[in-house]
């Protein structure tokens, strides 16, 4: 199995759960915060993955990658932090109790 195929369920789950969370209050603010968080996580991933790969701390079998890279880091590495930036707040919004508007 290739890494791009492995991330598809995570991306699909993130899209579905984030979409379902749109009915909860503060969706626009949450998406803006998630987008900002995703940018920060992508920058940090780019820095640290490139350093770790350059130091030969780990490698990826090239036959399992898409071939797209940001520096030395395969593009697939960036999907997990982006999914986390959107999925975690969406799940939290869905499981949080609604505040009574009294």
From TrEMBL:
Molecular-function GO terms, alphabetical: intramolecular lyase activity; lycopene beta cyclase activity
Keyword field: Carotenoid biosynthesis, Isomerase, Membrane, Transmembrane, Transmembrane helix
Mode of membrane association: Multi-pass membrane protein
Membrane-traversing stretches: 6-23, 35-58, 78-96
Organism: Microbacterium hatanonis
Identification of the protein by name: Lycopene cyclase domain-containing protein
InterPro entries: Lycopene_cyclase_dom (IPR017825)
Main location: membrane
